[in-house]
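seq:
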Amino acid sequence: MKEKYIEDLKEIKDMMNRSSRFISLSGLSGISAGISALIGAYVAYQTVYTNQDYQDYGRLFLTDENITQLLLIALGTLFLAIGTGIYFTTRETKKRNLRIWDIQTKRLLINLAIPLLAGGILCLMFLFKGYIGLVAPLTLIFYGLALVNASKYTLHEIRSLGLIEIALGLIATYFIGYGLLFWSIGFGVLHIIYGFIMQRRYKP
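struct:
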């Protein structure tokens, strides 16, 4: 009888956890986001950084064409990552018979968006001022802050990923000349590793 009560309490706890957190994040979403980031980093290197002194710790001036190329690459990478993420997350939600849009989803997106928007605006300012070396570290730091801020509404592994992204961004700030490499690790490799872990741990 006692074991039955313990089992019932566990089920109640699991139900409460599902109702208070967005748990439909798919591991495939992380993998696809990581692959998109690596593709974007490769294209950015080939089209923008090949003929420029990116190892300079000083101020790097970009032409209007360079800035346009960077923005287009960034937008393309972002839309590809978001598109595949939505697809795999929606598919995961249907598998679990859960609603994809509810109060927890709204809270998750709001807490995620605040640091991302602030960081995005700041990075654009640095980009247009020519401080290209700081853009990659700042995107990692603000993305990490966004994950930590939103982690209380989703899987706890998101917080760990966020802290790693912040640490990587701080290290990248010191090694400014290798910003694109750190960006590839943070948004590419880490997302792929995270995706594989989530896929194995939470596969229904």
